[in-house]
Amino acid sequence: MEDSKIAVGLDIGTTKIVAMIGRENEYGKLEILGLGKTKSLGVHRGVVNNITQTIQSIQQAVQEAEMSSGLKIEDVVVGIAGQHIRSIQHSDYITRANSDEVIDESDIDALIDQVHKLIMLPGEEILHVLPQEYKVDGQAEIKEPIGMYGGRLEANFHVVVGQIASIRNIGRCVKNAGLGLAGITLEPLSSANAVLSKEEKEAGVALIDIGGGTTDLAIFKDGIIRHTAVIPFGGNVITEDIKEGCSIIEKQAELLKVKFGSAWPGENKENEIVSIPGLRGRDPKEISLKNLSKIIHARVVEIIEQVFSEIKNYGHEEQKKKLIGGIVITGGGSQLNHIKQLTEYITGMDTRIGYPNEHLAGDSNEKATSPLYATAVGLVMNAVEVQSKQVVEEKEIIEEIPQNIDPIVSETVSEEEVVEESIIEKPKEEKKNFLQKWSDNFRDFLDTAE
């Protein structure tokens, strides 16, 4: 098995760091070859707040993944989330110099580059520029303008913005852990790729990824991403509430939540009680499951209501923007009992739990199909995509190398160098998507910041 064929996703979360190794099989499905998971120390609500601990956790997860697969990890695609992520809607246009020629890729790139130059708040940077729909010479609702004639090309964009410092810190951690950065992706987009079907994205769907520190939301309609948001609450806040409400330590609170927790208080009888060993030399504590689920219920309702208000902000109540596919819940928090029923009750929308098995090969690692790993699976898919783009680019570049290179080259220059020079002369820049360009610039920045 060649090393170059493998793709690696690194999910740096608040509660866990996951390194996942995968590759595409001959049927276009994703095979998970290795999985490493460690407790995340040094990340708070999706933002790195302790570089050294985060580096150690990344190295541990990577080691574990390498051991389980017998492969060596070099480059990774990293997910970015956190409460500093926000999104804005923006319209922009370009006037084309020659309207007698059809619109091509370079025109769209020029328009996207123009949006990248938007002035952001101090300390903020544009992460993704996602075109919604285009207008050509005033003709609206065009999904694919390439090949059309027109002088004025206009588009609505969904622009995702994040804080430069937080993004750099993640890059620094990855680099210091001895890994190359193949790309950076917004986590809600990765989770969506892993758990949503094409039909759902067409019909309109809201993906809620309930992680440890944050809850990510991504809304799709007509196959296009329409809205993203990061809510700074997740599973950890529920654990915190249990810890306070029951006067127990965090470890016990987490265990109670996972083993006996429910988001629906009506399910538990009054007399259901769990006994927890007391701290050194103290009597055990008795906790009523009814009270436990009341505590959980209160916090989950708050999270879902915040997400629902974001869905309403997007305009779900308008007939044209209705999300027929309803809601898909994924992430660790989706494993809480009765969360599906509670979500349906609060929002009145159809809800299902999202498992990342949509694109996985049948014989993949059993664990990988858990909602816990939705983001990691999405990141591996992204890494596969980045790789296949690079392969296409390299192919094109090699095809462009002049075949008639004179074999009589001056003694000082080897034939290899001539080939190299011709590669350097004709880089296929326009084939890179804006995210790759951004990642390259970001990598250059990290190198110079050494």
Question: What's the rounded overall pLDDT mean?
Answer: 86
Strand arrangement within the widest β-sheet reads: 3-2-1-6-11
The outline comes out as: globular
**The CATH H-level homologous superfamily of the domain at 198-357:** ATPase, nucleotide binding domain
Named CATH topology of the domain at 198-357: Nucleotidyltransferase, domain 5
Mind describing the biggest β-sheet?
A: 5 strands, mixed
What is the structural class?
alpha+beta
The DSSP helix count reads: 12
Oligomer: single chain
Q: What distance separates the N and C termini?
A: 34 Å
Residues in helix, %: 25-40%
Radius of gyration: 24 Å
Low-confidence stretches: 405-431
CATH architecture assignment name of the domain at 198-357: 2-Layer Sandwich
| Proportion of residues in extended strands | 25-35%
Tell me, what is the CATH class of the domain at 198-357? Alpha Beta
* N-to-C series of helices and strands: EEEEEHEEHEEEHEHHEEEHHEEHEHEHHH
What this model shows, in words?
By secondary structure, the chain is α+β, with helices and mostly antiparallel strands. Among the domains are: 86-163, Dna Ligase, domain 1 (2-Layer Sandwich), CATH 3.30.1490.110; 198-357, Nucleotidyltransferase, domain 5, CATH 3.30.420. Helices cover 38% and strands 26% of the residues. Helix 6 (235-246) crosses helix 7 and helix 8 (289-314) packs across helix 9 (339-347). The protein is globular. The two termini are 34 Å apart. The relative contact order is 0.14.
